[in-house]
Amino acid sequence: MSNWAIGVLPLVGVIIGAALQLILSRAAEKERQVQTLRTEAYVDYLRFVAAAAHLRSDEDLRDAERDAANAKTRIAVYGSSQVIGALAQFEKAGRCPQQCKCE
Which among 74, 69, 85, 67 has a CA at the least distance from the CA of 36? Predict the structure, then answer.
């Protein structure tokens, strides 16, 4: 092997390793951010559902519905398909009792 190859190959290896580390760390950070946003949306929705049981005025109801709609929108964007389906079933059950035959 020539002298230039002995000097260049380790440098190429370091550059490739650094590039791969950068790409993988960015992908991991993006996934971590999406997971954080997803979890915040789930927690916010549950918080608003729980708060709805303790409403004291029409203004509180309006605020709770606004905040729940915001959380549901974020769930639609960041949530898994199973969670979105479960949320839709929960919302439907909450708005229409099972004895209702509105389907």
Answer: 74
C-alpha distances in angstroms, 67 versus 50, 53, 62, 70, 82?
Answer: 12, 14, 9, 5, 22
Dist CA 34 CA 57 (whole Å): 35
Judge residue 26's burial from the number of C-beta atoms within 10 Å of its C-beta, 0-12 exposed, 13-18 middle, 19 or more buried: exposed
Euclidean distance between CA atoms 31 and 85, whole angstroms: 22
38-50 residue pLDDT tens:
999 999 998 888 8
- Cβ atoms of 75 and 46 within 8 Å: the answer is no
* Average pLDDT for 12-19: 90
Residue bearing tokens 């949306």: 41
